[in-house]
Amino acid sequence: MAYEKQALYYNGQRHETSETFQTIDPSNNKPIADICKADKAAIDAAVHSAKDAFIKWSRTTAMERSRILLKAVALLRERNDELAKIETHDTGKAFSETSVVDVVTGADVLEYYANLVASGGLNGETTQLRPDAWVYTTKAPLGVCAGIGAWNYPIQIALWKSAPCLAAGNCMVYKPSEFTPLHALKLAEIYTEAGVPPGVFNVVQGAGDVGAMLTSHPGISKVSFTGQVSTGCKVASSAANGMKYVTMELGGKSPCIVLPDATVDNGVNGAMMANFFSTGQVCTNGTRVFVPASMKSSFEQNLLQKMENIRPGDLFDPATNFGPLVSKVHHEKVFKYIRHGIETDHAKLIFGGLGQPELPSGVSKEGYWVRPTVFTDCTDAMLITTDEIFGPVMCILYYDDKDPHWLESLIARANNTNMGLAAGVFTSNIDLGYKVVQRLEAGITWVNTWGESPAEMPVGGWKMSGLGTENGRGSLEHWTQNKSTLVEMAGEVPTAFPKL
């Protein structure tokens, strides 16, 4: 499958550049499109376009903006399968996933914020200070914001960033990941078709050097970044030099806890969802699976039976639920960790390992395939249990549930990481589940489920896993700045310097 050359997009128009790079289909290692790379002049032009557009867009009423954005929602839903097909070619995720998750959940967030601002979501507060004096607050948009996307959920992340940004009256210059750039131009043109004015949403393409130019640009007021912790630290540092607002959604090494009273079926189903959905390329994955020692035999037996239900294959076959990794460089990284788990950590490998999974005839073996892998009898100090692998590698860690202090020890082990993005528990005792998640040091927690992040739910990490939140009512605040005004209505201004 080949796509047209992907131009930059600003001021409501496509702009081609002489320098290009290619995006690769992960399922067969073949190029599928040439992508125009932005240079400094293009970034300057995109930011300038956004600054010009901000003057009018920020002054439109919330209701006007809402009507336009809801038209974009309708277009996204109408073209769901077309956009999902692009996501499958670009990311290597099965169409059975992209067609029901990626575009749908992104459109949900745009719809949520369009409705929120139309129904008073940007209202401030009013306080009567004294009989003749009032204090009121208003929320003003920030200006031109930079959105930097990740490669695992391209169009979803683009919408998570642009939806509250545009709904609040800001403009955006968006840079997708260089590994999965095909959605960006489509989204920009959908916004334009819906009636979003030229310059309100712009796209620049390129790798980290383009992102660096964008985040350090003096015309940018805020940076919203999704990616790994090390890159996020650099982006935040660059933004801090210009006193820019930031939202950082970074990585994690999240604990997935099976409590002793949980059914084995529920524990295994939850652990598999937390490790193998999207080929394990999810920042919130629960890759440290804590299981009671008393459940060891039954848990592993049940897990091994269900691992056979993971089906790699033709990405457009409805039965396929497991795809390749996104890129060659990431494939090499995940293989390196699996090898380290076997040869250096000496964890017990009970499923998967090095090499490719068994693929149906007709499926290219040139793709970035990896076997879904399970290590058991892991310890807290192993590299595979401390580093974020970002692939389909489950690490099972057992805890002694016969020890009278097992719960205190378990919580301490779960929290023993410098990241705190997500955590979850599986239990038959909802009261106990509630008490455990309250003590877990993570910004996103689940009880008896894993991974769902609806538009209404704020998501963001603690510790090194991020700053601020995305989605939910409160996250709209991250796209506005507060103005407080005190009005004295007594009709007379007293002097601070009376005549004696």
From TrEMBL:
InterPro entries: Ald_DH/histidinol_DH, Ald_DH_C, Ald_DH_CS_CYS, Ald_DH_CS_GLU, Ald_DH_N, Aldehyde_DH_dom
Aldehyde dehydrogenase domain residues: 16-484
Transmembrane segments: none
Catalytic activity: an aldehyde + NAD(+) + H2O = a carboxylate + NADH + 2 H(+)
Entry's EC annotation: 1.2.1.3
Pfam families: Aldedh (PF00171)
An example molecular function term from Gene Ontology annotations: aldehyde dehydrogenase (NAD+) activity
Gene3D superfamilies tied to this protein: Aldehyde Dehydrogenase, Chain A, domain 1 (3.40.605.10), Aldehyde Dehydrogenase, Chain A, domain 2 (3.40.309.10)
Entry keywords, A to Z: Oxidoreductase
GO biological process, one term: acetate biosynthetic process
The keyword Oxidoreductase is assigned to this record: yes
Active site positions: E249
NCBIfam families registered for this protein in UniProt: PRK13252.1
Family: Belongs to the aldehyde dehydrogenase family.
PANTHER family: ALDEHYDE DEHYDROGENASE-RELATED
Protein name: aldehyde dehydrogenase (NAD(+))
Organism the protein comes from: Zasmidium cellare ATCC 36951
